[in-house]
Amino acid sequence: MKTIVRALLLSFIALRLAAAEGEWLIDLAKAQAQAKTEKKMVFMDFTGSDWCPPCKALHKNVLSSSEFLNYAKENLVLLVVDFPRSKPQSEALRTANEELAKKFAVDSYPTIIVLDASGKKISKESGYDGSNAREFVANLKKLKAK
Length: 146
Hints:
This protein has helices at residues 2-21, 28-38, 53-63, 66-75, 91-103, 133-145, and strands at 24-25, 41-47, 76-82, 111-115, 121-126. β4 and β5 (121-126) form a beta hairpin.
């Protein structure tokens, strides 16, 4: 009985952590379809999640913050395009990510690309300047207003 309760508790905690992190998709076609349906922007994070110091800082300071996640919930479909060195990744996903990097001419990490609901690129920013979540969200609000 204790094992079942522990398992349920751990499952609940895992689900809460996943919700707190936001739902990051890995398929651009699905992200674009969702953005079109929900009239949201697609936020693409090209990252080296397990080796890139600026990528890690962006994630820690902005992308995992409640301010960003609250804004994203109402306005963004989140897509991560990851290029890890140590984390396992399927060959199909690696190939798809490489094709996206070529399509959007990404040559450094992190690179953030924002698409409108129709799939048109409206912003591309490379690097992370150390801005906080409030500043980052303010810039996203300006993009949405255009």
